[in-house]
């Protein structure tokens, strides 16, 4: 697969991504931003992967060669990079985060944004960066002095972790504190930051009076304990064990660059990210009456129903952070969420932030005095398969067969194909990178879910494990 994906650059180090390639991409990004701004200032951050310092240095060298002004902010989470671009007096023309998010340590990548943390995807500039990089000059050999950053957490207070930009960190913490409304003190909370950048937030959480039980909180971009992907149940098992063993009221799992969060309730049961989207929406609507709440089209019908019942406007969007953020800005949505665990906030430059999602869940628990399981109980009205993969040779032909078989339903093609009946529905989407279609199916009862899944499997074939 190619290095340039739909939303970012990501590949194996050094075969696909290395300092030479990073230099060329940095030069191309500078040229792209230079079309609108003379000598654009570009913030560059990085995660804790062993390959990140060399790639960051080469990328910054490429920016400078392309007549941009690189501003290396050092280790950070992706949301902190967004803040560096959009949240300070001297706003930047763009930003780049050196990270491969939840991928294993042998990968690395680059996430891009423009001014105001506006994302750059394939159709909004990433394809142009790819094309420009092909004509980049030869990188200098050797590169400028290597970046050497020692990372260490600070578990007891909110000062910057060792290796972080202290003034930027202080400003960022002040920004995050604006979201704190009524978080509960003394609550026992388990946190698994998967050895990723979320370890920076432990001091902030402790400052709220929480009793934290932390696992994998050290910065270690080799991810020695488990993959930094909280969407996989296997990766949640250590967190679930701590929640149950310590009697925690809440469990929090973060991904490698800390822009995604997954929650576990006090029983050790993972909470669906669409349920969290609804909860965050309801919490936001208490403060901003009549606001719009964005959700991805794989989400349960219960999300839209709950937002409407609370006097808000539910807005449905296709999967992908660039689409979500674009619609957030266009509509002015107060909050939004995706099944991947990305949560977006109007007061955070319409960008995603795992730690703000954590704070808002704590606000809801503190305000209501109820555990998370009780807060979402009214939302669990339907049953779902979760995302199931089917291997196919021709997704387009398959979609046409599905349209014909279910032609009596309400059908739309916003993202793949969505087929809706009064008491059940499903969405099929083709993978961008693999020969799969992904099914999400929801029904009123488990019996109906089983029946409809078998009906679809007869069309789609054998489900992948």
Verbal overview:
- With 465 residues, the chain is an alpha/beta fold.
- It has four domains: 125 residues, Alpha-D-Glucose-1,6-Bisphosphate, Chain A, domain 3, CATH 3.40.120.10; 94 residues, Alpha-D-Glucose-1,6-Bisphosphate, Chain A, domain 3, CATH 3.40.120.10; 107 residues, Alpha-D-Glucose-1,6-Bisphosphate, subunit A, domain 3 (Alpha-D-Glucose-1,6-Bisphosphate, Chain A, domain 3, 3-Layer(aba) Sandwich), CATH 3.40.120; 78 residues, Alpha-D-phosphohexomutase, C-terminal domain (TATA-Binding Protein).
- Helices cover 34% and strands 21% of the residues.
- The protein contains 14 helices and 21 strands.
- Strands 16, 17, 18, 19, 20 and 21 form a six-stranded antiparallel sheet that branches.
- Strand 9 and strand 10 form a beta hairpin.
- Helix 1 crosses helix 4.
- The longest helix has 16 residues.
- The protein is globular, with a radius of gyration of 22 Å.
Shape, per Cα inertia axes: globular
| Top CATH class of the largest domain | Alpha Beta
Our count of domains comes out at 4
Spans of at least 5 consecutive residues with low confidence = none
The mean pLDDT is 94
């Amino acid at each position: 697969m190619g290095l340039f994906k739909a939303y970012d650059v990501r590949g194996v180090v050094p075969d696909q991504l290395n300092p030479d390639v990073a230099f060329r991409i940095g030069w191309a990004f500078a040229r792209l931003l230079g079309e609108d701004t003379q000598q654009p200032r570009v913030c560059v951050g990085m995660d804790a992967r062993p390959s990140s310092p060399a790639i960051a240095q080469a990328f910054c060298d490429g920016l400078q060669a392309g007549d941009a002004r690189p501003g290396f902010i050092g280790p950070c989470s992706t949301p902190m990079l967004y803040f560096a671009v959009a949240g300070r007096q001297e706003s930047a023309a763009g930003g780049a985060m050196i990270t491969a998010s939840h991928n294993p340590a042998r990968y690395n990548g680059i996430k891009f944004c423009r001014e105001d943390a506006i994302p750059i995807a394939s159709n909004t500039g990433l394809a142009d960066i790819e094309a420009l990089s092909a004509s980049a000059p030869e990188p200098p050999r050797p590169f400028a002095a290597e970046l050497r950053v020692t990372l260490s957490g600070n578990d007891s207070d909110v000062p910057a972790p060792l290796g972080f930009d202290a003034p930027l960190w202080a400003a960022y913490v002040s920004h995050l504190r604006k979201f704190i409304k009524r978080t509960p003190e003394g609550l026992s909370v388990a946190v698994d930051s998967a050895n990723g950048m979320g370890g920076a937030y432990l001091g902030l959480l402790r400052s709220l009076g929480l009793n934290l039980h932390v696992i994998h909180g050290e910065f270690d971009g080799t991810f020695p304990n488990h993959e930094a992907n909280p969407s996989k149940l296997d990766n949640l098992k250590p967190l679930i064990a701590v929640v149950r063993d310590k009697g925690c009221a809440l469990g929090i799992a973060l991904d490698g660059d800390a822009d995604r969060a997954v929650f576990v309730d006090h029983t050790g049961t993972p909470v669906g990210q669409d349920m969290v989207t609804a909860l965050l929406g309801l919490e936001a609507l208490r403060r901003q009456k009549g606001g719009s709440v964005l959700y991805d089209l794989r989400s349960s019908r219960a999300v839209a129903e709950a937002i409407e019942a609370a006097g808000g406007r539910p807005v449905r969007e296709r999967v992908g952070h660039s689409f979500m953020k674009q619609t957030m800005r266009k509509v002015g949505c107060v909050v939004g969420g995706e099944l991947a665990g990305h949560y977006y906030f109007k007061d955070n430059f319409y960008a995603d932030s795992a730690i703000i999602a954590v704070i808002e869940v704590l606000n809801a628990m503190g305000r209501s005095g109820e555990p998370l399981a009780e807060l979402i109980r009214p939302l669990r009205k339907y049953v779902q398969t979760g995302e199931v993969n089917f291997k196919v040779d021709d997704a387009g032909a398959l979609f046409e067969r599905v349209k014909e078989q279910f032609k009596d339903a309400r059908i739309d093609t916003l993202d793949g194909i969505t087929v809706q009946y009064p008491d059940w529905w499903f969405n099929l989407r083709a993978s961008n990178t693999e020969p799969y279609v992904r099914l999400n199916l929801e029904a009123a009862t488990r019996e109906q879910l089983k029946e409809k899944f078998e009906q679809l499997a007869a069309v789609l074939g054998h489900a992948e494990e």
